[in-house]
Amino acid sequence: MGFALLLVPLFILLFGRYLSTKIEYKCSKCGCEFKISTTATLLTLQQVYFRLLKCPKCGENSWCRIVRYKDREVIAKVRQIDEKTKTNHTVLLFVLILTYLTYIAIWILKPNYLLLAVVTAIFVYFAAIVVYAARNGYNSSLYLILIFVSVLLIGIIVFVQSIVILTSG
Ligand SMILES: [Zn+2]
User: Fold this and answer.
1) What is d(CA 66, CA 87) in angstroms, rounded to the nearest whole number?
2) Of all helices (H) and strands (E), which one includes residue 157?
3) Own/partner pairs for 2-8, CB < 8 Å, 24+ apart?
4) Residues facing residue 23 across a β-bridge
5) What angle separates helix 142-168 from helix 113-136, to the nearest 10 degrees?
6) Looking at the DSSP assignment, which residues form a beta bridge with residue 69?
7) I need a labelling partner for 166 at 20 to 30 A (CA). Which of 54, 64, 133, 147 fits?
8) Distance in Å, CA 84 to ligand 1 centroid
């Protein structure tokens, strides 16, 4: 079980690497077409045919459309959600850290290393996405939804563990 869990990050990493070599994006500001790194593939936001990226040529951040997959033309069938939200990365990171610390406080009462590994992995991954966004100046309301999902995930685990602790006496 523990060993199988170790394979999940490895699989995600390989899948991200595979995608980064196969997909080409087009900057909505200058029209430049480019591929992105595995890191960018794993840490940036995606809306079906669009990804929030910094253009390597003009340096502008925008939702860049996927133009090619495996050298074949991709036609966008849906538009991306247009939004001008300013993301407060610090607050989002703070909420994440607070959620994680709450988990640790509950975890200490009845330590379970497998769950700790899962929650830590969720925390580290989502925190990495927020830090990456802050460093690149990516703004989107989707980050808020992302943090909400991670808090919900960790919250469910905290809730279930609390019940287990309370009922086991
Ligand atoms: Zn550009």
Assistant:
1) 24
2) helix 142-168
3) 2/114, 2/117, 5/114, 5/117, 5/118, 8/121
4) 69
5) 160
6) 23, 72
7) 147
8) 18
Cα gap 138→92, rounded to integer Å: 13
Q: Which residues pair with 25 in a beta bridge?
A: 34, 66
CA of 164 to the centre of ligand 1 (A): 53
66-88 pLDDT, tens digit each: 999 999 999 888 877 767 789 99
Model pTM score:
0.90
Give the helix/strand (H/E) hosting 18: helix 2-22
What separation in Å is there between the alpha carbon of 58 and the centre of ligand 1? 4
The two three-digit tokens of residue 131, written as one number: 């830090």
Ligand 1 centroid distance, CA of 54 (Å): 8
Expressed in angstroms and rounded, the spacing between residue 137 Cα and the centre of ligand 1 is 15
The three-class DSSP label of residue 41 is helix
Query: Tens digits of per-residue pLDDT, 3-23?
Result: 777 788 899 999 999 999 999
Burial of 29 (0-12, 13-18, 19+ CB in 10 A): middle
Q: Report yes or no: 121 and 9 within 8 Å, Cβ to Cβ.
A: yes
